[in-house]
């Protein structure tokens, strides 16, 4: 026959086990959250970016200028590539980039974006014998370890030149949801990450 003392001891053990289980569950959840939120470290530059840039076929559409690209995701995390030809030109030695009708391909590593690119800034430094450039589009493919492959196309259809409309050496395309990038403007103002090439002033 069970005494009240035996029952109390059993209840105490059950309560202790229940509390121990509860604490163990909390610790497991906390450890899991820490792993999920971990960023940085060796994976900082493990994403691969491929850019396909089409120059228009219009007369004098090609350029000798240096071209830079900045991209961002919907959360404003961004990267900036100064002089994309030096960073990742794949067309071979002696090839002349950004000539009329060209589809030029560039690829390289950089810090991973946390969301697919939806914002792009394309900038010419205006140098060279012929500075004006007509760009049809820029297509960006991104991938990295343990992440999917994202593809974004930005229609430009604009001159980057000082002697023809719209008389600007840059083009910006924003396909992000309106709230996330409100007021971003130029990525230089929000700390874009540069990929190893000195910035063009």
From TrEMBL:
<protein>
    <recommendedName>
        <fullName>PLAT domain-containing protein</fullName>
    </recommendedName>
</protein>
<dbReference type="Pfam" id="PF01477">
    <property type="entry name" value="PLAT"/>
</dbReference>
<feature type="domain" description="PLAT">
    <location>
        <begin position="47"/>
        <end position="174"/>
    </location>
</feature>
<keyword id="KW-0732">Signal</keyword>
<dbReference type="InterPro" id="IPR001024">
    <property type="entry name" value="PLAT/LH2_dom"/>
</dbReference>
<dbReference type="InterPro" id="IPR036392">
    <property type="entry name" value="PLAT/LH2_dom_sf"/>
</dbReference>
<feature type="signal peptide">
    <location>
        <begin position="1"/>
        <end position="31"/>
    </location>
</feature>
